[in-house]
Amino acid sequence: MSFKKIVVYFLLQMYHRYLYAQYMWQIKKDTVITWYYWDGDEFNGTKMNTDKWISGYPWSKISIRDEVIALPENIEVNKGTLKFFVKKEKYTTKLQPWEIDTVEMKKKPQKMIDENWTFNYTTGLLWGKKRYKYGYFELRFKHSRCNGMWPAFWLYGGHPNYELDFFELKGEKNNCMHVDIHCPDGCSNFKEGPFGYRKAWGHWIKTTGWFDESFNTISGSWTPEGISWYLNGVLVACFDKKIDIPMELSTGIGPANDNGPFSQGPDKKSVFPGVLELDYLRIWKTDSINNNLELYFDADTTNLPDIYAGDQGSLKPKSRIINLPKNYKPDKDFITLSIIKESKRTYIINNLGGIQGLGLVVEIIDERGDSFWKSTNLPLGLTRIFLDNKKGKYWVKVKAGNRTISQELKD
Description:
The chain is mostly beta strands. It contains 2 helices and 25 strands.
């Protein structure tokens, strides 16, 4: 091996060690599943990260059916969160030939003039520039109660239409979440009920509260065995069919249509703007998932206010686990715990909770083995840990049940 190749190999190894400086654990009574931070956005800047996102669909920014156009000015990044706004306002733009939908246009009272079309709503949307295959996809967010609003967080696989919906919400039923799968080979017609009766797989899941009251986390684990959905770390649904094509990630909000999917649309009671606010979007991987995607993590948050205090998501599902097949055993009995480097010498521990009785103890120790910080009653949600400014190594040590995890905190 040449000297140049040795140097490149060494740098790659150091780079990947840095990538793995942020962790998530799903701790069961006798086992631990370790996830590594893979990609995402902490929304710590002052504008949308154009290296990661575009502000519309790859093929267009409009929906004739829903009377809406996505605009970058309807996306606001400030104080560690990103907000999408749906505004009720007229916006006229020239359509491209492939955007002209004569079928939907015939249903509308307005007319196209010189290829210009007037929309009744504007909105914001993020569409990722990368494609993913398998992983753990996590979004912490808050959504306003505004009738007719339709926020979503999903993966899209292109044509034919493969889609994995981690959630879809509605403003007028903001205490429920909808999960769904779309694929043309029949998985969207998942077999349910007696006598082989087939119906669309998607399900509504009622929660114990409202999504505008605090930040909550909805996540999905996509593996070769299937997909599992979680609300604040609690398993809510499973799908045990194989989906193995790379997909693009998207999230945003828009108005529904009275005659379209997820009706109703906005009405006289709707209060504009409708808002979907994101705290972070994170994507995790395990050692068994091979990929070469690069990690970008903006850790410059030194001067941000503490937005977490007193604002911990506590919603839980009211219903049973949706579609838990006998031959599919997802990891549902565990504590979910992650640690993220927020800025130099500052870490955030996220406790999403889970099964009780494991005796969770989280401790930060220094290189002498002395305890720097310790919690035997870690609160749900996010906890900031400020290390001192002295040089030296620190480790996080987690005890739960019969398991002990020790991991160095990379600075």
